[in-house]
Structure formats: C-alpha cells, structure tokens
Design a protein that fits this description.
About 35% of the residues lie in helices and about 25% in strands. With about 475 residues, it is α+β, with helices and mostly antiparallel strands. The strands form five sheets. It has an eleven-stranded mixed sheet. Helix 2 packs across helix 6. It binds zinc ion.
Length: about 475
C-alpha cells in the first residue's frame, strides 16, 4: 500500500486540515515568492469549470470579455482619492524597466478601474454608447502580509466586471443583478448557500458608493466573503473624466459598477464541503465526476474487466466527466484513497464477479443522512442512475451546507456580552441591531476580532426587527450580521 497517513482531523486543527487538503489533493503548491501559489492542473480544472459557468452567465446578461494591461501608471491610481488610499498599502510598484529607472513608476494592477476608465473615456461619447458592459479574466496583485493558498494570496486569478450606465438607477440595477448571478452560481453550482447584503461604510470597496457582498459560512464557523459587487456612483467617472451627452444634449458623468470573484472560491469549496478524508466536490464543479476502478488479480481477469470498464466509460462519457483509472502501479485500495482525497463524487468498481453478473458497484463520496455508501446496479441502467446520483448529491450537499449555516446562525442577540461570548465560543453568523456608528463596529473588531459582514437583504432579516444596538444601547437603525471572517 502507498497510502499516506490520514489528514489532520478538522475538529483537531481546521487550518492544518485545509492546508493538507490543498497540497495533497494537488490543488496548489507553494511558490518561491512568499504569498504566491502554483495552481496545479487538478485545481486549475476546477477553476476552468467555475470560469465556464460564470462566463456563460455573464454573456447571457449582455457582457463581453476584453483585456486591459497589467501595468497602471502610478498617477492614474492616484486620481481617485479614496481608491488610492485603500489600495496604496498593498500595491506592488515597478520602478525599473530594462535596467533603467522608469520616468513614472508602474503599479501592478490590484484591480483595474484606474486603467479601464481613462481608456473607456475615449470610447464613450453619447448616451447611445451606453451601457458599456465588459468583463476581464485576469490576475491581480495585492501585497498581502498574511497569506493562505486560495483564500488570500499576493497574486490571484479573478474576473472583474466593469460597466458604465446613463443613470444611477441603471448602475444600481446592474450591481444588484450581478449579485444575483453570483448567488445563483454559488448556490446551484457550488452547492454553497450565501447571505447577501450591503457592506457598511467601513467595509465597502475603496471609492465605491455602495458595496454588496455574498457571505458564506465555512465549517469552522468563520465567514468567507465569496464575492462583491459595487455601485461606484460617479466617483471614477469624475476622476477619469468619463462623460457622455445625455438625451437632452447635456454632458454628464457616467455611473459605474464593478464586480468580481476570484480563485478564493476554490478555497470556499474546500472549506464548505470537505471532510476528514479530503475534498468533497459538488458534481457540477468536479473535473472528474465518475472514476472507474477495475479490480482483478489474474491476467486473464484483467482483459475481461478492462473491457467492461471501457464500455461503461464510453456510455457515461456522453453525459458525465469520467475517467478509467487503469494504472498498474497502484492497487485498488490506494486508488480509492486517492480519489476520495480528491473529492470525486462517484467511484465505480468493476471486478470479475461483477462482469459475470452484468453489474457494477457504485460508491458515493458523500451520502446524506444514514444512506448506504455503496449501491449495486445493472450495467444497462448505469447512465440514468449515475446522472440521478450526481443530481442528488449536488442537492444534498447544498441542503447540508444550508442546514449547517442555519444551525450556526444566532438571532435575537441583544446584549454585548452575549454577542462577544457567541463570537468567541461558537462563531457563526450573529444577528443584532446596530446604531449605525463606526465606533461600535470598531469596538467589536477590537474586542471580539469580528466585524459586520453585511447589512442583510430583506429575505435574510429576522422576522422581528431588533430594537437596540448591543454595543452602545442606542436605538437600532438596521439589523446587521457579525462574524469572524477569513
Ligand atoms: Zn451602537
């Protein structure tokens, strides 16, 4: 057997478990530059599935892909005051090029508003040129002090959508629309329920009018910001002089939005569904949905079993991503261990007795409740059965994640002592009233190492509106959700 020792159990050390899964499931590896990571082929295959699904949704809503340069002249970034203040501490700056000192230092993009809008300004003349709806898939660099693979890295891959509109209402609608698209993808594709809502003034994107966020609860009861959309108002349009002639013939500034999700989503997948055996991938984002493991001892069995394995594979190939693991160097037990670690949803075992009986054994990576892990099925019914099992697993993973979130959501918390105690002892999402003052937010941040994740959208609010801010006792102006976060 080539089996390594098991993973550190989640309950013992969640952070260690996470790092081990990322490395051993071959999602990523460390790079020579601290905070950077190598995304390995298996991890990149997951990212490609994420990209494919989102890209289609973006295009269905009228967005087109484009590409803007990696380098931004430093003076451009400085043109929007809040933006530069927010990003300056974490930018990487190039001062030498070709061995010579540059006339103007170049910032490696931390996000692309400051390069996209000065260029777009040339293209937008009249209301007829609006809306502009672009997206780019690219890498960005933010010089992070504390990094973890996928969750926070100095360089990461993402998509950034950038749009321009004629009215504030249209920009607001766009920011909300993209929040809805992200939510649909996270819930249906990733099987990961999310809370949506608005960020507080302190939590919003540097330079935005309003920021909306999607917050997911990980298995260690920490929140993870899975994506954000921003209504940028006219701040960037003013800074970069993006104007248009409106229908009345007047010059006006455009209204902008931007929105993004990143390779952080892969970290979210790991921490939402993984178990002590490793990764558990929701079928829709599994690079390999079904792995077929042939089992044989004697050589004459080998040909027989492999023939059936190939036949089953070619049937399944029509609808699912399938792979036959015919490596001679590993025994079946070692293969099971590896595919469990990599979170493959279904494993089909075919041995000589199965061949004779015209059946196969299907083992599920995740089973809801006390369902059986292994099911025997006739070869003839395999395609329909496998499709159904994958759909069931997708749904059940989401239901489990939702149930876990509900069990770890604490409502009706009215005292500051309770707020701190719950955040400290249990974690999870804590709903309270809030007076709206940043001082109260800062105090919790300081004393409980937690912050306001969102001012939740209507559907997430408690049925009874909270009356007081637990921190200062003043009247509450809105309900908020607190959590410790990644
Ligand atoms: Zn207060």
């Amino acid at each position: 057997m080539t089996e390594e020792k098991g993973l550190t159990p989640r309950a013992q050390d969640f952070a260690a478990w996470y790092n081990e899964v990322v490395l051993r499931a071959e999602l990523a590896d460390y790079a020579p530059v601290r905070g950077c990571m190598v995304i390995r082929p298996y991890g990149y295959a997951i990212w490609e599935l994420v990209q494919r699904a989102l890209d289609e949704m973006f295009k269905q809503t009228g967005h087109q892909n484009a590409y803007f340069p990696l380098f931004i002249p430093q003076s451009y970034l400085a043109r929007e005051a809040e933006h530069i203040e927010g990003f300056a501490p974490e930018t990487a700056v190039v001062t030498l090029g070709g061995g010579k000192e540059l006339e103007e230092p170049l910032v490696v993009r931390p996000t692309s508003e400051a390069i996209i809008w000065p260029i777009m300004a040339k293209w937008i003349q009249s209301y007829r040129d609006l809306p502009v709806l672009v997206n780019q898939w690219c890498n960005v660099v933010r010089w992070e002090m504390r990094t973890r693979p996928f969750l926070r890295t100095t360089e990461f891959l993402w998509q950034e959508g950038h749009t321009a509109h004629a009215t504030e209402a249209e920009a607001e609608e766009e920011a909300r629309r993209m929040l809805g698209i992200y939510r649909k993808f996270m819930e249906e594709g990733m099987a990961m329920p999310v809370l949506t809502g608005r960020k507080t003034e302190q939590g919003k994107f540097a330079g935005a009018l309003r920021t909306y966020s999607l917050e997911a609860l990980m298995q260690d009861n920490r929140a993870l910001q899975a994506g954000t959309t921003h209504n940028l108002g006219q701040n960037f349009a003013r800074a970069f002089e993006v104007t248009f002639q409106n229908e009345k013939g007047e010059r006006d500034f455009v209204w902008n939005t931007s929105w993004g999700v990143s390779t952080r989503l892969i970290g979210a997948l790991v921490m939402s569904h993984g178990d002590d055996l490793g990764l558990v991938l929701p079928p829709r984002l599994a690079p390999v949905q079904v792995v077929i493991v042939p089992i044989y001892k004697a050589d004459r069995e080998r040909a027989l079993v492999l023939e059936v394995a190939q036949r089953v594979s070619s049937v399944l190939q029509r609808m699912v991503r399938v792979r036959v693991d015919d490596r001679e160097t590993l025994n079946p037990g070692a293969k099971y261990y590896e595919w469990d670690l990599k979170g493959v949803p279904l494993r089909i075992e075919i041995g000589p007795r199965d061949v004779t009986a015209q059946q196969v054994v299907v083992a599920r990576r995740f089973v809801a409740g006390d369902g059986k892990r292994k099911i025997t099925m006739r070869e003839g019914e395999i395609l329909a059965s496998v499709e159904r099992l994958l759909e069931d697993m997708q749904r059940e993973l989401r239901a489990r994640a939702r149930q876990r979130r509900e069990e770890n959501s604490h409502r009706d918390v009215t005292s500051y002592e309770d707020l701190k105690a719950i955040l400290e002892a249990k974690g999870g999402f804590v709903y309270t009233g809030w007076c709206g003052s940043p001082e109260c937010e800062d105090r919790v941040k300081e004393e409980a190492k937690a912050d306001i994740r969102v001012i939740p959208d209507d559907e997430f609010r408690s049925s009874k509106a909270p009356e007081r801010c637990p921190v200062c006792g003043a009247a509450s102006t809105q309900e908020v959700v607190w959590a410790k976060a990644y």
